[in-house]
Each structure stands twice: as structure tokens, then as C-alpha cells.
Automatic annotation (TrEMBL):
Protein name as annotated: Protein SRC2 homolog
Pfam families in the cross-refs: C2
Origin superkingdom: Eukaryota
PROSITE patterns from the UniProt entry: C2 (PS50004)
Gene (name only): LOC113711446
Gene3D superfamilies: C2 domain
UniProt domain C2: residue ranges: 1-110
Annotated source species: Coffea arabica (Arabian coffee)
Amino acid sequence: MECRRFRITLISANDLPAVQDSGKTRVYAKVSLDGKRKTEKRTPADKEGQINPRWNFTLWYKVAEALIQQEDVNIAIKLYAENNLRDKYVGELNLPLKNLFDNGLTAEKVSYALEHKSSDASFSKGTLQMSYSFGEKIIVKNLAGWKKAADYGATILLKGTCLLVFGFVVEEEDDVGDHDVLVKP
């Protein structure tokens, strides 16, 4: 299956609505493709920025080329403020992946207006600064479930043996770690 690596760096947000009654606002972001839970990733909460959080946090996805070319596939970014009882919704941004791709393979520090949606109304409040890039096309093997499990088990066994015998583990050059999520149609 043809895929591309998609890197998105959430840099910061500005002028967010104040959603906390008291205390510090600690804002974090959840990022997903089309709101699908299996693709969801989260930034750490910013402890200092209040309504102007700074993250400079990078997330990686492997996205099927077919999905990038579809008009209706969005990158969803939702901001929340940590709260003792229940985290509070701050705002969101939904961007068609195809539009990002069509605007260029790389964009450094672009700003988008955030939308705050509630049951009563929807309004703009605050901005989100981010950068992104799409890598070159790569071929990803579409393995059956049992084959994936066997490959994963063999990898763990090999890495464990290397760690035990040599005291270190050699990582694959193409491996971007557990934060690399394959998203396919």
C-alpha cells in the first residue's frame, strides 16, 4: 500500500477563551484523523501559558495515499483544559488533509482560527499555530493480523536478546517509534 509520512507540529495557541473558573489553565490538544479514536494522539498539557499555551510538540502518522486524495478526510485538532473533575473543551480545528497536501508538502508556522462549538452556537475564538510536512511515498506491507503479531513478536525477541547480550538495542533507521500510526482506507 502506498503511504506518506505526515508530520504535524503543534507550536502554540493564542487568545483562547478562559474556561477555568479559578486556578491555572493547563491546555492540551488531541489530534486525530476524522475523529477516529484509534488515530488519536495527545500533546502534554502546557503548564505556563494559560490562554496562550506553547507545546512545540510533533506527532507522526503514516497515511495511505488514497486517503490524502479524498476531499472528506480531516485532521481534527481539539483543545481541552485539564480539570480535576472533567477536562473542559476549549475549541477545535478541522482541516481537510487534501487541502494541506495541495498547499504544499511542507508548511512552517501557519495559523488557523479555532472554532468553539457548543449546543447553543459556534464561534471563533483564538488561533492555532502549527507546521506540517508530507514525506515521500513509501510502500507499507499490508500484513494479515497473525503475520503482524509474528513479526512484532520476533522483533521484541530480537531486541530483547540484543539488550541482554550486548547491553543496547539497535533501532531500525525507518522506525519512528510507537507514535507512528498507520491510517488506511
